[in-house]
Amino acid sequence: MKQTLVKNSRKEGVRWRKQQALGEPGLRSHRLRRGFVKALRSVIPTLGMLLVVSGAHAQSDTVSVRVPFDFIVGKQVYSAGNYLFSSQARSIQAVFIRSTDDRKVGLVLTQNCQKLNPAAKTMLTFDRYGDQYFLKQIWMQGNTRGREFPKSPIEKKLLALNRQEHDEVIVAGLVIY
């Protein structure tokens, strides 16, 4: 079976080179078809993303938070300050992080997390190891579902060493619609 495919592809390549050398009219349609397929491959994903983003825009949740300490999300370090955390939709599992002075931005893939009772207030939870803070979760007031951030490589190392105890720190947020 493979030999047949290889032979056919070789024959096709030889035929195409002959057409190219002779300047046959079939070559032009072949190039047009190849260009159309390439364009189609780049346009379809772009259109799909536009549809997802435009549909999710109406469902976006944005939380404004003043974080009084430097914190880590993934491999990025964010300095203390005011931040906006945007979750674009429940189906898209990414959270966009932006400082209000636009000096730091990030996009982090998150997971759903759930608890039995609805959150009493909008808040961010951090894990603290010594003087290092790692963003753990975002909860919206009245919801039983939140967003959970993956553990950063640094946090994983600290957990593996098991040298430092960790605390959970909560920072209140304000929902922006």
Describe the structure.
The structure is a single chain. With 177 residues, the chain is α+β, with helices and mostly antiparallel strands. The protein folds into two domains: 2-57, no CATH class; 61-176, no CATH class. The strands form three sheets. A five-stranded antiparallel beta sheet has the order 6-5-4-1-12, with no helix packed on it. It is elongated. Strand 9 and strand 10 (145-148) form a beta hairpin. The termini are far apart. The protein contains three helices and twelve strands, in the order H-H-E-E-E-E-E-E-E-E-E-E-H-E-E.
Helical percentage = 25-40%
Largest sheet: 5 strands, antiparallel
Number of helices: 3
Task: Write down the Rg.
Answer: 26 Å
Number of strands: 12
Mean of pLDDT: 76
Trace the largest sheet across and list its strands: 6-5-4-1-12
What's the structural domain tally?
2
Instruction: Give unreliable regions as ranges.
Output: 1-6, 51-59
Q: How would you name the oligomeric state of the polypeptide chains in this document?
A: single chain
Shape: elongated
List the helices and strands in order. HHEEEEEEEEEEHEE
Distance between the termini: 60 Å
- Derived from helix and strand composition plus strand pairing, the structural class reads alpha+beta
* Estimated share of beta-strand residues: 35-45%
